[in-house]
Structures are given as C-alpha cells and as structure tokens.
Amino acid sequence: MIARRAILAGLGSLPLARAAAAAEMPSAGKRAWAAELPVIRMGLLGGENDADRLARVDGYKKLMETIFGVPVKLMVAADYSGVIQAFAAKQVDIAYNSPAAYAQSWIQSDGDVRPLTVTQEQDGSTSYFSVLYTRADSGIASLADMKGRSLAWADPNSASGYLIPRAEFRSMGIDPESGKYFGRTGFAGGHEQTVIAVMNKQYDAGVTWTSGVGDPAVGYTRGMLRMMTDKKMLDMKDMRIVWKSRPILNGPLTVRKSAPLAFQEDMLAFHLALPQAYPDIYRSVDMGNGKGWVAVKHEDFQPFIDMLKQEAADRRKR
Question: For domain 2-122+251-317, which architecture applies?
Fold first, then answer.
C-alpha cells in the first residue's frame, strides 16, 4: 500500500514550471530526413468515434504535409493498445498518448519512444483529472453510494479511464474488482462509448478525463465531457460528477525515438509553435481550450512506468 501511495503522489508532482515559450513555426520545405521517412505515420488514439477523430485532425494533417513536404498517413486505432503496439512494431512515427499509454509504449518498445510536449491548461497547470460520473437522476451522490452498483471502465491502457481510479480506490481500501465493492465492472470500449453507456443506463457510472479547469456546465475547458458537450452529444445537466482523482500529468505527444533526430526536433518545433500560429487547428487537435504545449522529458513519466510495473507484479502474485 505504501508503494502504491508513493506512486500516486508522484503522478501530479511535476518539474514543469516551464512556460509555454513563444516559438516560430518551421519554414516550409522538404527535409533531409524525408529520405529515411518519406511518409509520416501518425497514430490516432482510441476513445472517440472514427468520423469525429478524422475530422478533428484533418486541418492538422494537411498543415503538417504543407510544412514538411511529405504525406501524413493516419493510423486509426480501435483502442489505446493499437498505438502502443504500433510503436513497439515501429509502425508509427508520432502519436498523442495518454500518460499510461506512453509508459506502456516505452516498456513494450524497449524505450523506443520520446515524449515531446504536454498541454498547459488555462490555469498554467500541466495536469488533468480522472472523474467518476453518473446520471443526475441516478440517486448516486458520492463514491459510497456506488457500493453494489455497476461501473464502466474506458480502456485498460487509459490512466484516467482505468489505471488511476483503480489504484486510488485500492489506496482508499476499496477493492475495485467485480463483486467486491462495485456490483459489476466492465470495459465499455473507450471514453466516449463509456459516457454513452452510462447515459443509456447500461452502467450506473463511468470514469473519464477532464481538465477540471473552467466551467463545469460545459464540461470544463478540455476533456471527453467538453468534447461531447461541444458536439451536442451530452448536456452536463444530465450528469453528476461524484469523485475526482489526484492531478495526473497530461499525456504527451510522442515520437519514435529511433526516427531521425532531425525529424524529432522538427516535430517539437512545429508543435510548440502551433498554438499561437494556428490556434483553431491547435484547439481541434488538443480537444478543447488549452493554453498551449510545453516540452517534457521521459523522466516526467517515470511514476507511470513504476505504476505499470507494480500492477504487473501484483498480477503475478494473484
């Protein structure tokens, strides 16, 4: 228990007093690295329906093609594991990851991933939250009210949608396994699908991610609730949030470490400049209204690697 609490405490304790410095968008033109990387293979993490995912990144994809003079091929993953496995197989060059998916990618690829940036929220923080939500008419007003009720997880490789709430519940003395505290648990197929399942009364509650910043009536500034509210798929009046996690470091934009170093540096420069140079594209890609992107290092995500290793050790003991 002490080890788990120490890991959880580190998830939001970040050496990220790094301001989102002004950066210039790289000049347009084909790069020398294109000889080795003639196509940029971009992974799209699961959790949202395919049509909306593709529409959301269309302008981003086209801008990257214009700036670097090479095509961008999108790899639409059904779930988080699709991108994780693609990094391990060297089938993807760049992707946005959750913090836990980055850690799993690092483990499965033997360190062949590099984090570039994370979102800086409107309040200057670089973290988000896992929240447990239910329908407003469910009669559930607290975590204690969830005893014997059904809970939907989003994805087994999602920090906010599974790993963090599961670990925090255990640190509180709640066994999250089916039948021990919650009457039933299951995976609903992604963050968006989980919200839909709860609102359709297939589960009593679910977990997802949110910035926790801004107006809760519109789903805060960023996160799945904000995205679904903006798309008119959800009215926050119909939902109640009954639990919130500790802060979690935002997930990183990740590149394949064995890709040409010049490519990695171009991707870093491109993304640091994007929020100010093309704010509409930035907001679409960043899933809400963040302040910008700031650089990160692998060491910032060590707590997530430690958490996954502890999870694996716990499974071996059971």
Answer: 3-Layer(aba) Sandwich (3.40)
